[in-house]
Amino acid sequence: MRGMKGRDQRGVALVVALVLLLVLTLLGISSMSSTFFETKISGDERFGNAAFYASRGGVEVGIRLLPKINAYSGTSDPDQTYQSGKMTDAAQEPSADLGPMVRPGFETTWEFRRFQVNAVGQSFGATRETEAQASYGPSPAGTQY
Fold first, then answer.
1. Maximum CA pair distance of the chain?
2. Which of 7, 15, 84, 131 has its CA 20 to 30 A from that of 21?
3. Is 10's pLDDT higher than 80?
4. Is the pLDDT of residue 88 over 70?
5. What per-residue string of b and e applies to 89-104 under the rule 16 or more CB within 10 Å gives b?
6. Integer Rg of the chain from CA
């Protein structure tokens, strides 16, 4: 009887080792998949940030061009571009003149002009849009720019 008991347990070690190997393989594949997706997410975030900064630079250019409201585009890096306008329109758009406004502390003979500046930035396929409103002035009221 003793000899039979030892022979029955020989195959159990092989089955246990194969099951452990299968579990470890599944854990390894799962961690590799997770690492791949985390790397992709961080890369997408980096490209998104670069596109945001390109659009932010486009807004700065647009504000510098005030009070002209011409369309513009440019490159802030070899991989980053910006243009005036919105993501919904592929073409460049001029900034919008929102009209005059009065500020507290200034007489009614002075006015400020309000402008809306939109810019779209792109970097490695990521696209971001930045929108800003700026005032230009003071100027004597009724003056044409």
1. 114
2. 7
3. no
4. yes
5. eeeebbbeeeeeeeee
6. 32
- Overall size of the chain counted in residues: 145
**pLDDT at position 4 over 90:** no
Mean pLDDT of 93-106: 88
Domains held by the chain: number? 1
Q: Under the phi-then-psi rule, with left for phi > 0, alpha for psi from -120 to 50, and beta for the rest, what region is 115? A: beta
Name residue, tokens 């003056």.
143
Q: Is residue 113 part of a domain?
A: yes
Domain ranges, residue 86 = 2-140
- Kind and range of the H or E run holding 60: helix 10-64
- Cβ atoms of 91 and 85 within 8 Å: the answer is yes
| Domain-located, residue 103 | yes
Query: Dihedral of CA 17/22/27/32: which sign?
Result: positive
The rounded distance, in Å, linking the Cα atoms of 133 and 97 is 10
